[in-house]
Write a structure and sequence with these properties.
binds S-adenosylmethionine; alpha/beta; 6-stranded mixed β-sheet; Rossmann fold; 209 residues; 25% strand
Length: 209
């Protein structure tokens, strides 16, 4: 197998993300990772959280070997073979077609800013369809926030993303929350992580009394 893809950022942020996941997650559960990319995150989390079964996925077929290679290198046995999943697909390959649902966790890092805005609604709607009651969607990455000065690094990153693809760009948290609400999810926790990134925890809206 060829060398796995490597993301220096994933190597830096996997441990701070894991530390938050440890505070959020029970000892056992079933997780879907959306936009796994290199596979470094899922390999790290699966090793550290052995009571969880992980289903990695990505929209790009060329990531799948890399995900498999990172998991093999980590020696983990609680990761299912990665599957192709484009959040924009009207149906995700869940409900037994590729992985079992409902899920206790859907985890998606660093996709919203590097994909068209429609992917945000698609992620929220997919999470609302596939999360178990009491399950969580976790998103991680840079966000713009009303009333919070944007770090110069994120301003430059946003400009470079938009230059590469006008459909990309760092998303405004308030816009993401609005799209989440339309799908029936709401923000339950916001964790500030290194390098001006946020880890956000989303859950189903409580039923209206
Ligand atoms: C910057 S990488 C992040 C990878 C990894 N989650 C991380 O944080 O290191 C963005 C990933 O989003 C994936 N992606 C982009 N559009 C997508 C879509 N519509 N559905 C699923 N994944 C998508 C890309 O293929 C890519 O692997």
């Amino acid at each position: 197998m060829s060398n796995p893809l490597h993301s220096p950022a994933a190597e830096r942020n996997r441990q701070p993300i894991l530390e938050v996941l440890r505070t959020l997650l029970p000892a056992t559960g079933r997780a879907l990772e959306v936009a796994s990319g290199t596979g470094q995150h899922v390999a790290w989390f699966a090793a550290a959280l052995p009571g969880w079964t992980w289903q990695p996925s990505d929209a790009q077929a060329e990531t799948l070997d890399s995900i498999t290679a990172w998991c093999a290198q980590a020696g983990v046995h609680n990761v299912r073979p990665p599957v192709l999943l484009d959040v924009l697909a009207p149906q995700w390959p869940g409900n037994g077609a590729a992985f079992a649902t409902p899920l206790d966790l859907i985890y998606c890092a660093n996709m919203l800013h590097i994909a068209p805005w429609a992917c945000c609604a698609a992620l929220m709607q997919g999470a609302a369809r596939h999360l178990a009651p009491g399950g969580h969607l976790v998103t991680y990455g840079p966000y713009l926030e009303d009333g919070v000065p944007t770090a110069p690094g994120n301003q430059a990153f946003d400009a470079s993303l938009r230059e590469r693809n006008p459909a990309w760009g760092i998303r405004r948290l308030e816009d993401v929350a609005q799209v989440a609400a339309a799908a029936g999810l709401h923000l339950v926790a916001r964790h500030a992580l290194p390098a001006n990134n946020l880890l956000l925890v989303w859950a189903r809206q409580p039923p209206t009394p």
